[in-house]
């Protein structure tokens, strides 16, 4: 699957793509929402995994922007967050996020979630 | 190294940067910046540290950062006013995080800081009393708003084991990964009947949530039946197919608890979008079993169908192609219009400014830059080789080629400068360690100190950055210990109780100059001079100018620190600092004004990777003397050589008796020497020596190459370089050379000749 | 089937059957060898820059694509004089511990596979005071002395200087 991973913490980003690549996915990386959007247009991912808290353009804005473009309406967006609150989830939902995952993620759990979007 | 370990290292490096940012922002806030962006940046920093720490299983770090982050979040959300926030506490916490990072990095046990944690919790406690309780407080979380399976709790608990669940502690219930093998047949299995009702909001499809993905989160074996309730679906003519009106009832027979199920579903659905309840009564189950219910295997099929209905545009096509009433056809299209319309991208004003603040940058491995640097070094060598080749060409060819070579030289030099600039780092990397030092020292010494940093963005090569920390630490220690008075003493002297130390970096004349200034009592010249006399460093009858006395602070074996002081008296005096600085080709000096303060000035070259050198020849061998050491050169013929009683050759230079050393003899040069030139050079102690050589070949920038990497230390030389013809030349270290000359351990030259 | 098991059994019981691949080279009429894995490259002689007061067998340093490494004269190391280096002489560039070094020899002869069992310990030779020889391999035509490279190099560098200092004292 083609997956776009967005996180401003480079280490986590690398860990994310390492996990995904090891599972056989094709991964593009971006360090913030803005870069994420342009990668989204180039890479045309099947799935997006994005961090919430990022400089320049955060995950919520990214999700909103993504949903507002024709090509972004059908792509599942998984939001990674360390905040485990209902508020942030509601905000993510209003923006159009498809799923949440709490950071730090456990690789198997992430892959399990990703696998559900396969096919 | 395996990729994970490598990533972990990168993470720690990143932590250093994040910690720097965290501390800097907190410092700014402490000083009253009141800028919400500073709060955000601090929050982001600790947030990122926590995120990474969790990924790498640094439990203590996660636990501490988590609490710290929560406190900062109160500021971010405005629940605590910035003005009221305890930044001193936060700064101490950022120190604690730094310690935890260091512990994790070195695999050492972490020092627990219950005191700080308690103080941080306090920030939250005060809030709890306020009408609007933080949503994160588990006790207040209404059932049904429980969050996604709390992995963090798992990490904090140090294992995947479920923490003892509080009665209503949904938040703490971890969502375990799906069990690998669940025994088959539902009726034969233990467990109980539960009913999951999914009533998604209408925008489900627009969120790209496919019902099958949601149902996929449940163990397939546990699903007894799935029913789709279409009763809410509006009449086709008013149906917007991008809306979801379906409701699902899932009958389950499962061993999972309600909470566990909850954790599995709420990764995607909002708390109010689903409900889990015990199946009303067993007969219900029997009933569903009796009627033509949807068997296990059908669940997937149903999901597949739902999936097709799922995402909007496909759904639209589907709907259009279906034998639907004609009137319905235009409807979905019309409905789809608002969705397809692309509203302008949100780009609020603060985003713009954020973009300006954040310069575009790439992260490059230092190793790669070093390789690039090496390559540029090679080009410099090749280029000087070309210059030598060209010299032997006939004049007409030479003239043309020389022009090109000249351009090449300029471009090479420029290339080198640019690569050096890439390696350059702001001194901030070192400066930002100092506030902590000052805070801790202030506490130990009972002094009140304000540290002012200036010119943190001044850039120097990384080779110098690495060498700055030690001298700066010593200079600051010295200022805080000896320079600054206690608050009471200061008050008595009519000074503010709080002393000020300024750390200022700037570029000056191709060097980096760092000044450490304090407004303390200045150097106690009487005491210093007395001590120097008692140690025999200064003759009793010598008359020294005040400035000369001040410089005694750098004299070997002389520290004004009463050695008992545990701050500066760690056996490392300013003399060691001076020696280290000078070995890097730098200088350190002090200016003191009694009663007003003291200023240490450190000047270092911008890099250790290249140096400006004078290439000289002695016999068959060539050497490089750093230009920084050279004072003057002159013909030996014009300088009479005299001998001291024990045979040491000397010359008179500017009226001073200056020892003369023959380089070929000291270094054991090959071939016959014919000394024509004397180079007057300066030693670390500031003495002058004459070095007799055969010839000055030229002056050029040379790339410094290590001898230690593949060999070992070479007496008389600090390093080596590669000259234009590809041969290696030693870079002379005047002091080391003099030590070599002084020690009688030179192998007789004849032996060496044989060895060559 | 049985045979296979037998073979398997045989080979696992005889791990010494493994071979060492050795590069052999000549200094005068003597043959030396080192494991091929230690050899980084083999290059023609190039002039070195002498180091002050180094051990006699340290020929000096040279520039190998921007890296500076020391060259050791094997002839001097074994105490049979100094190599009069010419263009036909060879520097074997080796990796020893964490360092790269050059070994000045007359010529490189061959690469041979030697069963580990064929390596015998070096006889206790009085002359090999620095323990340069790690073992001997008997080939049909030659006796190959396997070099303990670390020992060859250990006598250069800093140690040489302290040694020289001691000698002079």
TrEMBL record, chain A:
Domain of life: Bacteria
Modification type 4-aspartylphosphate: residues: 51
InterPro entries on file: Bact_response_regulator, CheY-like_superfamily, Sig_transdc_resp-reg_receiver
Keywords from the UniProt entry: Phosphoprotein
A Pfam cross-reference name: Response_reg
Domain Response regulatory, chain residue ranges per copy: 2-118
Cited Gene3D superfamilies: 3.40.50.2300
SUPFAM superfamilies linked: CheY-like
PROSITE patterns: RESPONSE_REGULATORY
Protein known as: Response regulator
